[in-house]
Amino acid sequence: MDQIEILPYSPELNPFFKSINQAWVEQFFSIEPFDQAQFDSPDEIIVKPGGTIIYAKLGEGIVGTVGLHKVSDEVYELIKMGVAASAQGKGIGMILAKAILAKAKEMGAKKVVLYTHSKLAPALKIYEKLGFKEAELEEGKYCRCDIKMELDL
Predict the structure, then answer these.
(1) Where is the N-acetyltransferase domain (predicted)?
(2) CATH of the domain at 47
(3) Is residue 148 part of a domain?
């Protein structure tokens, strides 16, 4: 099997950020305005305010992506972790999650938070294995999320 390579943010890869994440969001939920804004303008919405996006490459193709949204100098939100359907079950989600947590530390994060849904069982397993713990969910943060998790770095 080919090695999985983690690629840093590059605007040329933005179409993969959109296509990979749009596929899973539409499979389980519906696209909300904040999703569309992130898909259409990741530079403006995620990167320029202090966040980043990374990508997983398998062979010649981009098969996964995840982002970090800066909440404060010490807190980042893990957002839009997705793996293409054709590459699921190969451990790419765990590799992406570990890589983005390392990047969060590099960027000065003391805590990473995430919002998810209980029906996204494979993602929940990854987060739990990495040490994320459930936290109190704020009202109205995201319509589709029923779980908030945090990890102190």
Answers:
(1) 4-153
(2) 3.40.630.30
(3) no
Q: What is the pLDDT of residues 34-91, one digit of tens each?
A: 999 999 999 999 999 999 999 999 999 999 999 999 999 999 999 999 999 999 999 9
Range of the domain at 46: 4-109
How far lies 128's CA from each of 98, 131, 144, 149, in Å? 12, 5, 20, 9
Spatial distance between the Cα atoms of 18 and 72, rounded to a whole number of angstroms: 25
Q: How much of the chain exceeds pLDDT 70, in percent?
A: 99
Q: Decide: pTM greater than 0.90.
A: yes
pLDDT of residue 151: 98
Whole-number Cα distances in Å, 148 to 10, 93, 99, 132, 151: 29, 18, 20, 9, 11
99 lies in a domain?
yes
CA distance 111 to 128: 15
Q: Is there a contact between 25 and 35 (Cβ–Cβ < 8 Å)?
A: yes
As for how many domains the chain has, the answer is 1
Considering the domain boundaries, does residue 50 fall inside one? yes
